[in-house]
Design goal:
By secondary structure, the protein is mainly alpha-helical. Helices cover about 80% and strands about 0% of the residues. It has helices at about 1-10, 15-30, 40-45, 50-80, 80-100, 105-130, 135-165, 175-210, 220-230, 230-250, 255-260, 265-290, 300-320, 325-350, 360-365, 370-385, 390-405, 415-420. Helix 10 packs across helix 16.
Length: about 425
């Protein structure tokens, strides 16, 4: 019965949602052919230390964090589709340049452009889903579906790259740029179709209300900042998610650096296998876990995911460097944690955000990407000073801190937006 309801909700997805799903698949698949290997490329080509590689990756990501909120809040005013077009063009330019760059400074500049585009694109996509799907449960399923299809792309990308002989090759970024060209064309079609639907709906609503419409007042930028400043619950949530991103992102940067410098056997095969395993676990378990945990609250789901993430960090800390299947096992546990955590966090933010401030809230939530941004630098410093096992034990301790932050969320205050409008 539950599956029949889910199928019925999937059939309610508008055309634009299906375009977002397909676009996410082709762009993520091509992206993961080479992006995870950037740390290896920088180490092999320029002989940089773990801290130096981490500094490059962190600098690029850190700059993007502060553009994300501005871009997402701006989308509430100028429209999501215009900003998505501009971000897509930035993706195409930056990935094309990344396929050609041959200096450390060049990598810093171009990777910053890529990170800026990514930081704007992700919250925009979530906000668009909220705009076009009004039913809460259907919207939650749509966000779960988006996360699912992204991981299908992540699974297919590395394996297809190995099959085509492209994995780790810088020129593969041309494929990613081409994928975004295709996506922008499809988005233009999808937004045009959605605009026709919205226009017809607005006309019907006006006729139903005898042509009388009540204008919706938009908050000024100062009011938006005031609302976010008073939302203590949301601020604590951002801090918790920042730490969670820092912990999880060690897999994308510091773990690979650790394995590279420790001389792990069959390094490229191991990295590709870990990426594939991560995506495969998510693909095969996401909707099963969603069904099993449906009776639990969002906070309870997140706390269970954090316990799994803590266990994976302890496993990574204790695993011998040359034990191939040990690394894969740790990734399986970490992937189960990710399957529960990340889509649930997005749904949590969607439920907290006022409808007319969805872009601003998703943009503000993207400040948690600071954890992602600082992960390569923080992880690189810990690797150089203490080594890999200490890095992952610190990650396990941080998991305990995040569990505590989620426990106190419900005690924190939120603003009364209606009263703030009147004042």
């Amino acid at each position: 019965m539950q599956s029949d309801v889910s199928i019925a909700r999937v059939k309610q997805f508008p055309l634009l949602m299906w375009i977002l799903l397909f676009g996410s698949f082709i762009t993520r698949g091509s992206y993961y052919m080479v992006w995870p290997f950037l740390a290896v490329i920088l180490y092999d080509r320029f002989a940089l230390s773990a801290t130096e590689v981490g500094l490059i990756l962190s600098s690029a990501a850190l700059v993007s964090v502060f553009t994300s909120f501005i871009g997402s809040a701006l989308s509430d005013r100028i429209g999501r589709h215009k900003l998505m077009y501009m971000t897509g063009v930035l993706y195409i330019i930056s990935f094309s340049l990344l396929a050609q760059v041959d200096s450390v400074n060049g990598y810093v500049v171009v990777m910053t452009l890529c990170s800026i585009a990514t930081s704007i694109w992700r919250p925009l996509t979530s906000a668009v889903i909220g705009d076009i799907i009004h039913d809460k449960q259907t919207r939650e399923l749509a966000m779960q579906s988006l996360y699912f299809i992204v991981n299908v792309g992540c699974a297919v990308g590395p394996m297809l790259g190995i099959w085509l002989g492209l994995t780790g090759k810088q020129s593969s970024f041309y494929i990613t740029a081409g994928a975004f060209v295709v996506l922008l064309i499809m988005l233009y079609w999808g937004f045009s179709h959605q605009s026709n639907i919205d226009s017809a709906k607005n006309t019907a609503d006006k006729e139903a209300h005898s042509g009388v419409t009540k204008p919706v007042a938009k908050e000024t930028r100062q009011q938006v900042f005031a609302i976010l400043k008073q939302d203590k619950l949301f601020q604590c949530l951002i801090l918790a998610n920042t730490l969670c991103m820092f912990i999880y992102s060690q897999m994308d940067s510091s773990l690979i650096q650790y394995l590279t410098r420790a001389g792990a056997p069959d390094l490229l095969a191991l990295i590709s296998s870990m990426i594939f395993t991560n995506a495969l676990v998510i693909i095969s378990t996401q909707f099963i876990l969603l069904k099993l945990m449906a009776k639990y609250s969002l906070i309870q789901r997140i706390q269970f995911g954090l316990i799994l993430l803590m266990c994976s960090q302890v496993w990574l800390a204790l695993n011998p460097v040359d034990l191939f299947w040990g690394w894969i096992g740790a990734v399986v546990v970490m992937s189960l944690a990710e399957t529960i955590l990340f889509p649930t966090m997005n749904v949590h933010i969607d439920r907290l955000a006022p409808q007319h401030l969805r872009g601003a809230y998703f943009g503000a939530a993207s400040f948690s990407e600071i954890g992602f941004a600082m992960a390569p630098l923080g992880g690189g410093i810990i690797l150089d000073l203490f080594g890999g096992p200490w890095l992952f034990m610190i990650g396990a301790v941080l998991c305990v801190v995040v569990i505590y932050l989620y426990r106190i969320l419900t005690r924190l205050s939120r603003p009364n937006i209606a009263e703030m409008k009147l004042s």
